[in-house]
Write a structure and sequence with these properties.
This protein has helices spanning about 10-35, 40-45, 55-65, 75-90, 95-105, 110-130, and strands spanning about 45-50, 55. The protein is mainly alpha-helical. The protein has one domain (about 5-150). A two-stranded antiparallel ribbon has the order 1-2. Helix 3 (about 55-65) crosses helix 5 and helix 4 runs antiparallel to helix 5 (about 95-105). The longest helix has 26 residues, at about 10-35.
């Protein structure tokens, strides 16, 4: 194919693809040689293919966070955020998903621990607001179930 046959749109896409490869390889090298949470900064500027266009990972994270349910309990909100990131990762290539996980801060966290912490934080908030079940208040029914398996929640 001759260069004259490329449209302006083709040239723009090729430029974006070259930039994605360059930044992606820089991130990949860092992630392979020194896998740690500090790579989140490098991952945030990596363009990934999201909904038919190249978007920086930081932009994709903003899209994800915009649609999260509100919560005054940080651990619960963080768990909602984790679930949303995982849902998006399922539709991405393996490399793009890795960049998104690292940039979001979830690549080096244990999902089961995070899920359990969210459940405990919600239970604690309920206890603080409404008191313990053993305080003699027969009208209160707990919404928490101590035997619920939080690892099954996504």
């Amino acid at each position: 194919m001759q260069a004259t046959e490329l449209t302006a749109h083709d040239r723009e896409w090729l430029h974006q693809h070259a930039q994605a490869c360059k930044l992606g390889f820089d991130f990949m090298l860092q992630d392979v040689l020194r896998p740690c949470a500090a790579n989140a900064t490098a991952a945030q500027i990596v363009p990934i293919w999201y909904k038919g266009a190249y978007e920086d990972v930081s932009t994709v994270l903003k899209f994800i966070e915009k649609d999260l349910p509100r919560s005054q309990i940080f651990e619960q909100w963080e768990h909602y955020r984790y679930q949303a990131v995982i849902r998006v990762c399922r539709s991405l290539s393996q490399f793009d998903a890795r960049a998104l996980l690292v940039a979001s801060g979830f690549a080096y966290q244990d999902a089961n621990v995070m899920c359990k912490q969210a459940g405990e934080a919600v239970a604690y908030a309920i206890r603080e607001l409404y008191g313990d079940e053993n305080d003699g208040d027969d009208d209160f029914e707990s919404d928490t179930d101590d035997e619920f398996d939080w690892s099954t929640v996504e």
